[in-house]
């Protein structure tokens, strides 16, 4: 089971808590985790990555195990701690100031 | 007794204001979708309890919401949890993808950027929703980068009417400071095949065949801020409006100049007359008097607040040129708010109500066609849009 932590606005949109648990089929990568997330919560389609290109939205980043994974290949396997559910996969929104 | 429901979109959520026909006492519901930019909410003329809302965010993109009970509860029409993983993909109500098919979208892949270079079209947000006059499941959406989309299934999915963006002038369209937005959609009640739209900064366009083909309707416009002041496209049209009984008569608030056309946009003439500033964003028409129109003059180019710090609505009962200031109940000193292009509306009660919202968070109502004004609310987030439903 893969754990995914969502930024606050997406929790409200998907009507879930801070963290969701997902069954991910096959290799656990950014792509497969986000595929599983969007399949479970279709309202999140387009809010994290582009519908067509699958490119990450500009003000979002991905982290796990205190490492920035945002610029890694979406098809690269995620850390073992994420695969095992020991650590969550973080979707982090840029801080809004002003 | 009839009642009115005012749909207010703001930078940080939506609000629904309701009152009976007297329009004296108001119930305020909101914020709905708190924290999100609510560019526009619009109710179906066929089924007033069917309301569509454009919810967007620089972080998370575009969401479309729908209510079937007058705004009490909401759903994302294409965002239901999928019952079957092998079924169709969900989230389609949020999906606005430009048509690039070889049959329709191929001719146009770029538009002009601020620096004159060509740039690929990129969807950013829905500015305006225009429900069909006859079918609550059909809605048109004006988006940034400028394009027209349509849903025929109650916003579960959207497709582009790409004949507009595919017009030969498309590569010359360019964004204004607020982005290259398609912000106005007028559906002709007498001719279901005719639609008017307006884009900043391309101008106005009309289709007479239900959206297959489009023609620019900008002849007579003169914009000193572009290299060719009377060009076919490139004009920064802020808003157009008509009275439903006379859809061939159009009124326009342009970046500068208030204009009218008596032939469905074939030719425009200036009607700014004695306005203190002919810059502004909104223009609207009295519900029962097709030659009574309203604008709110704004100082520009850089200031974008009312001249002399006085918030004044100007009314012309002669279809333009002769304007009278309406000030009763509006601040006449130290007022430096703006009124954005989608933030004025009228109701259709016997005594026509006029409404507008400001970037300072006030929503004003006049229950007597503009003679006297009251603030329904004063401290909302910056108002992006105001629509009014008259409920029998």
Order of helices and strands of chain B: EEEEEEEEEEEEHEEEEEEEEEEEEEEEEE
Structural class of chain B: mainly beta
Number of helices of chain A: 3
The number of helical segments of chain B is 1
Number of strands of chain B: 29
Number of strands of chain A: 5
Radius of gyration of chain B: 20 Å
Q: Helicity range of the residues of chain B?
A: under 10%
Instruction: Please indicate the count of domains of chain A.
Output: 1
CATH superfamily heading of chain A: Beta-grasp domain
Percentage beta strand of chain B? 35-45%
Shape of chain B: globular
Oligomer: heterodimer
Helical residue percent band of chain A: 10-25%
Which pair of chains has the greatest number of interface residues, and how are they split between the two chains? A-B, 23 and 23 residues
Major sheet of chain B: 4 strands, antiparallel
How confident is the prediction overall: mean pLDDT of chain B? Answer: 94
Average of pLDDT of chain A: 94
Structural features, described:
The complex is a heterodimer of chains A (98) and B (392). By secondary structure, chain A is α+β, with helices and mostly antiparallel strands. Helices cover 23% and strands 20% of the residues of chain A. Chain A is built from three helices and five strands; from the N terminus they run βαβαββαβ. Chain A is globular. The termini of chain A are far apart. Chain B is mostly beta strands and 392 residues long. The radius of gyration of chain B is 20 Å and the shape is globular. The chains are: A alpha+beta (98), B mainly beta (392).
